[in-house]
Amino acid sequence: MPKRVITAAVGVAGLVVIGLGVASATVWRADDVLVATTTTTDHLIVTDPGVLELGGDPVTIRATTSGGDPVVLAIGRDTDVAGWVGTDAHAQVSGLSGWHELDTASVAADPSASPSASPSTEPSASSSAEPSASASASPSSGSDDESSVADPTDSDLWVAQATGDGSARLVWPAQPGRWSLLVAGTGDSAPTLSLSWPRVVTTPWLWPLVILGSLLALAAAALLARDWNRRRTGTEEPEWHPVTTGAMSTVGEPGTLTRRQIREAELARAARPRTGAVPRVGTPGRGTPQAGPTHDGSPVGSENDTVVLRAVPGDPAAPVPPAASEPPASAPVAPGVPTRAVPTRRALRTGAIPVVSAGQQPVRPEPGAPATPTSPASPASPASPGAPGTTEDDAADPKPAWLRGRRGAAAAEQPAAPTSSSGTAEPTTPAPAAPGEGATATDATEAIGTVRPRPATGASVPPPPPGAWVPVPPPSSAAGPASGPRSVSRPAWLPISAPGGDQPPAAPRPAAPGAPEAASPEADAPETLDPAEQAGSRADAWRRAWGLPSTDEPTTEQGEDR
Amino acid sequence: MTRRLPRATALTAGLVALLAACSSSLPEPTPPPAPAVAPAAVTPGQSTRVLTDLGTVLEAADKKLDDKLLEPRLEQPALDMREAEYVRAEATDGKREPTALPTTAQATIVPRTESWPRTQLVVTDQPADLQAQRILVLRQDDPRSQFKLWGWSRLLPSTQMPPTAKAEIGSPVVAPDSEALVVSPEDAIAQYADVLTKDTKSKYDDDFASNASRDEINALRERNEKAVKGSGTYDETYTADDEPVVSLGTIDGGAIVVGRLTALATTTLTLKGATLPISDPFYRALTGKKTAKKSVVRTSTDVLVLYVPPKGSDAPMSVLAFESVITDAKAS
């Protein structure tokens, strides 16, 4: 409400201002004619020089007397007027005392003076003949009573005059010189003098005030109208206030990415080990982090340790028993776990570890301490370290497997294969020794062989586990037969071997399929992914770069899944 | 209340003062400064008006030969002069008309003064009868008087008026006793009166250039003297009035001095038994007699216009105009 009142007040003020402006040009407008008057008791009124011109150019002189008494207006040189008036009582106008009053001062007569008496007698005196004639010559001068005033009419002194009964009017255009006005009421009544001048009247306030007032009024009207409109529409209070903000920052928007960025991002993603799936797997996930450090820390000997360690966090009990108790049965189980846990290579590594752990756990318990595994591992490790460092082939060694790369993974699988077999076959003691042997000699070779062939042979060898990371099994199968003996020794710490690799060689085959089956779906992807994924991702990047719809979503998903 | 009252008064006064301040200031008279030198007393317009009025008066009076009508615009001695002329006109049945007085100015010599009396000289156009130009002496004795014809004079033949200032500017008024001239104006008049009276015997004879009027006067005198020779005497005396009417400076520093002389021509019969017939109807009218047994005294009013050169000038004083009008005659 107060806002409305204020607005209304502003509007009213605007109207008032308009009114003031108009009034300044109308009601309060200065008169076009400045009229100043004076009324005196003197029968003579004299103006000072300059008074006639003070208000404008042509001054209109108007004198009135009551009762139609004669009045005379005469203008003459100030000295002439003063001389004519002489010492008579008169009113002297010296200017304006107000906008409509003449400043008038009454001058009393000087009784001592008797003007014009002496000069007129002189010439007459000279004429010895008839002095009487001269006496009557000057009617105006001489014996005038106090009541009546000499008549200035038609004096030679005047340059302009006007006479009238009751009123007289005279227009006097300004002229250079000093001019005075003489007003004489020659009758019984004193004249009233009014001077009027045309004025150049300006109304400087009209338009400024009108404009200002209009603005105020319009502003108020607009505000009121808006208010009214709001009230009508029910949105009395604005619900929203427009807030201007900067452009929203769009980060990572695909559209904004350059091709290069996309490519690099792809590459980076491709290059980076995929750990997406890790978190899903509770146990292996935990293992992975630990595995990382282990990798970093000690590639060789630590491997076993790490394995052990991982095994501990992983699922020591669960995997172990199955692995131990039921090689075939455990295999499926194990693979299930690891497979999920090891979609990525890392996961493979990590996952392998747990699997291994599963396999090993039995070992550990038996040997009891990590040392045991270490020891068996150590023989293998020496070989592995050398191998992994050099080539993938070397990586074929179980250790290198976890080092990095798919090959590594593959290598790991290979070793795993033997291990698996070994795992299945002899989870117990031989494991330690086996790794060392298998890894070093046969495994390496086999691994190489297997690895290469795997893609090619992978399909042929293990029917069920065509693509699975489980390729391990195939190789393992391939290797299995070959490395069967070794695997026996090795199996203990090689995880994956258990699922695929183990069975194939032996009776497990039937079982292997089961395992691989379980694993296969998931394993397939990884298998294919390894090689294909790179291409797929590149293709995808390429497509994105060119704005084509990506077709390898499944692959990516798989990758992610993995 | 007693406390509030002054407060309210002060408030009101303040408001009034505020309003007064808001309004623009009152215009005030801003007359031009008073001239350092007195302006011409009469504007050309005024002068013309006076002359016109004078002409009207003269015309009316001349028509009726009524000197009473002259009073608005004529004063002594012009009034007497004109009155005598009317008498003469009447006596001669209009054969001798009053002196023609043109009232159109050929030149006007205006005094520069702010006091009274004011006298302006008007050199008129030549009359219709090709007589000499007149110099009209118009005088305003006091502010409430009109300019009146004080007298007139005839411009002597072949006389050149000394150059004077324009009428708009006005000519300075020279005091009667001014020492800026070779002779003060009043003395100049008196001296010329002496010259006229004594003729060549006057010690001022050489101071005045010869002029036609003087010659005429001398000739008339001689004729009168011859006429009365043996039976009487003829004597002419000229006396100057108290002081010159006006002296207006000329451009060369001299002055035009206007004065009046009263000439008394007395014819005295010394021979016993002799009588002097008064044949002139004018004189008869004036004297009321047809014969004079003892003497006849004729009074003339002369208007003299002199040029008095400035001091140090070698030029003689000269008579510019002279008019003599018989205004009275007495016979006994």
SSE layout and pairings?
The complex is a heterodimer of chains A (562) and B (332).
Chain A: H1 2-25, E1 33-39, E2 44-47, E3 59-64, E4 70-77, H2 78-85, E5 90-96, E6 102-107, H3 117-126, H4 131-135, E7 158-165, E8 167-172, E9 179-185, E10 192-198, H5 206-233, H6 259-271, H7 282-297, H8 301-311, H9 320-325, H10 327-341, H11 345-363, H12 371-390, H13 392-395, H14 398-403, H15 405-425, H16 430-451, H17 453-460, H18 473-489, H19 498-502, H20 508-545, H21 553-561
Helix pairs in contact in A: 1-5, 6-20, 7-8, 7-11, 8-11, 8-12, 10-11, 10-20, 11-15, 12-16, 15-16, 15-18, 16-17, 16-18, 20-21
Chain B: H1 4-22, H2 44-64, H3 78-91, E1 105-109, E2 111-112, E3 118-124, E4 134-140, E5 148-154, E6 171-172, H4 185-198, H5 212-227, E7 232-240, E8 246-249, E9 255-269, E10 276-277, H6 281-287, E11 291-292, E12 295-308, E13 318-331
Helix pairs in contact in B: 3-6
What's the quick description here?
In chain A, 54% of the residues lie in helices and 12% in strands. With 562 residues, chain A is of the alpha+beta class. In chain B, α3 packs across α6 (281-287).
